Amino acid sequence: MSNASILTVNLTRTFKRGKKIINALKDVNLGVNRGEIFGLLGPNGAGKTTLIRILATLLLPTSGEAYVEGYDVTKEPGKVRELINVVSGGERAGYGILTLKENLWYFSQLYGFSRKDGWKRVEKLISLLGIEEYADVKLNRLSTGIIQKYNLARGLINDPRVLFLDEPTLGLDVEAARSIRKLIKEWIKSDRKRTILLTTHYMAEAEELCDRIAIIHRGEIVALGSSEELKQKVSRYVIYKIGIRGHARIDFVKEVDGVEAVSYKEDIARGVTVARIVLTEGDYISSVIEKIESSELQIIELSKVEPTLEDVFLKIVGASLEK
Amino acid sequence: MLALRSRKSTLLRTAIARAYVRIKGGNREPSWILWEVILPLLMISSVVYAYHSLGAPPKYIGFVILGGAMMSFWFNVLWGMGTTLYWEKETGNLEAFMVSPAPIEGLLLGMALGGALNTLTRALSMIVMGILFFDAKFDVNAIPSALVIFLLTLSVLYTLGMGLASLYLMYSRSGWRASELLQEPIMFLSGLYYPLNVLPMMLQVIASLLPLAIGLDGIRKTLIIGKKIWDLGPHVLSLITMTVIFTLIAKRLLKYMEHKAKKEGRLILRWM
């Protein structure tokens, strides 16, 4: 048996918006191994959710093929649905008027559990996720963090072989996001036949959770490898982090010789614009400083930093992901 | 991975679970009793008083009461079952449902069962109040025959509802137009408030093809005129034939609309 849990071959999906054709996915070739957490990293509109929807049998590809656990998602959706589940961040699937545990029981029935087995499964998951005290609370009364744990419990209700996690920590506070990540890691570790395909636009999350990462941009896979392998792609570059007082737009720095890529975002709390600049050689930093200062901007921090996935993304795509 | 049960068993469990949501959810908002019982009764009352003022024969009161009761089921088909998939889509539940192996017919069946229980309360209270307040008279001996016709009529109506629901998979809220389109003309042609023989012949012919008209006519013939089930062979045969035909059409429509919606990316596309 092949070790590929998910396989796509020249997968393409276009959408028609009036007279305009939008290429959401362009010839995507991807193989996700059984037992791994595979990350899809990309900005909004990159094609991450479209890919998940095709794999989860919710959307048909325009051309190409996609397989989950060896089953063709187009021709054998029923087989695929028995093996998968999907959890989307920020979603609230369920009925607000029912309690958390009643909702989970409802979803257990969609997978054919007997009434009794369904309740057993619900109790087990509630305990696993540590949400016992909310079990009898109506869904419409729960906080975002607990809802996301409930969502995860719903996604695990059928103990899927393949779990699709679409931005699972979207909108969560640091503690709730950490707790979700911990649960994800524990779940995959407890059975190596399981596979997770995770989409995120949080670099740190991808780095912490994923065995391999694919960077997707405008519907195309533009880089693929482990976090370390991806960072190797920028290892020959020199990266500087620069802090500039106030609100600054420094796209003009791209014109400086030796500058490969620039990203910046404003840290409103500190009143600083923080930029990352990828240079072909370290010597070019003096020209960068000169250019910034000639624009009457004040540099208040300057440090050479180790490459991160953000820099990989910046170098390959030419724009920042975490805006 | 946990062992999964057969498709039929999953369909049944899905239906029961969805009915549970409908009934449990409904009972947590007891105000539904007010909407389901008192308001429709007011509507029926106005027609009853219109007949009274015109000096219509007493059997017309029974006609109206039964018409109102059956209208409740027709509304449940149009707006309860028919629009189910629209609401499931808007709340994000359809996505979670569609990635599961549960057949969509199970979801609709559950909605029909759950909705029918509430509607039954509405219909029965209309009949009871019709007897108490308006002195409507029904043949008690004909109840078993009426029940057969009633159940057969429900079967056809709910298969129709299943077909209607399929439109919402693809067209989302635009499907409301179809429900609206089916509401008034069918109420008019089914003779909910009057016997069909008052209509022109051409309209009577069209009405004879409508399951609600056939069912209502059958129920009235049993409960008001006192006919037995064996006197209503054509009614029974038409209703059974329609159930079979509409079931096949609804299943094909559901499959087709799901495919089309997946192709055009509208399966879980929300209106709001």
In short:
Chain A has 323 residues and is of the alpha/beta class. Chain A has helices spanning 48-55, 77-83, 100-109, 115-128, 144-155, 174-189, 203-209, 227-232, 285-294, 309-317, and strands spanning 4-17, 20-33, 37-41, 63-68, 71-72, 84-88, 162-166, 195-200, 212-217, 220-225, 238-245, 259-267, 272-279, 299-305.
> Main sheet of chain A, how many strands, which sense, barrel?
6 strands, mixed
Task: Identify the CATH class of the largest domain in chain A.
Answer: Alpha Beta
Helix content of chain A: 25-40%
Helix/strand-derived category of chain B reads mainly alpha
Strand content of chain A: 25-35%
**Total individual domains of chain A:** 3
CATH architecture of the largest domain in chain A: 3-Layer(aba) Sandwich
CATH topological fold name of the largest domain in chain A: Rossmann fold
- Quaternary organization: heterodimer
Largest sheet of chain B: none
Low-confidence stretches of chain B: none
Q: State mean pLDDT of chain A (0 to 100 scale).
A: 90
Description:
The complex is a heterodimer of chains A (323) and B (272). By secondary structure, chain A is of the alpha/beta class. Chain A folds into three domains: 4-83 and 160-231, Rossmann fold, CATH 3.40.50.300; 94-158, no CATH class; 236-306, ACT domain (Alpha-Beta Plaits, 2-Layer Sandwich), CATH 3.30.70.260. Chain A has helices at residues 48-55, 77-83, 100-109, 115-128, 144-155, 174-189, 203-209, 227-232, 285-294, 309-317; strands at 4-17, 20-33, 37-41, 63-68, 71-72, 84-88, 162-166, 195-200, 212-217, 220-225, 238-245, 259-267, 272-279, 299-305. In chain A, a hairpin with a 2-residue loop joins strand 1 (4-17) and strand 2 (20-33). The model of chain A has no long low-confidence stretch (mean pLDDT 90). Classes of the chains: A alpha/beta (323), B mainly alpha (272).
Which descriptors would you attach to this protein?
heterodimer; A: 323 residues; Rossmann fold; Alpha-Beta Plaits; four-stranded antiparallel beta sheet; 31% strand; globular; B: mainly alpha; 11 helices
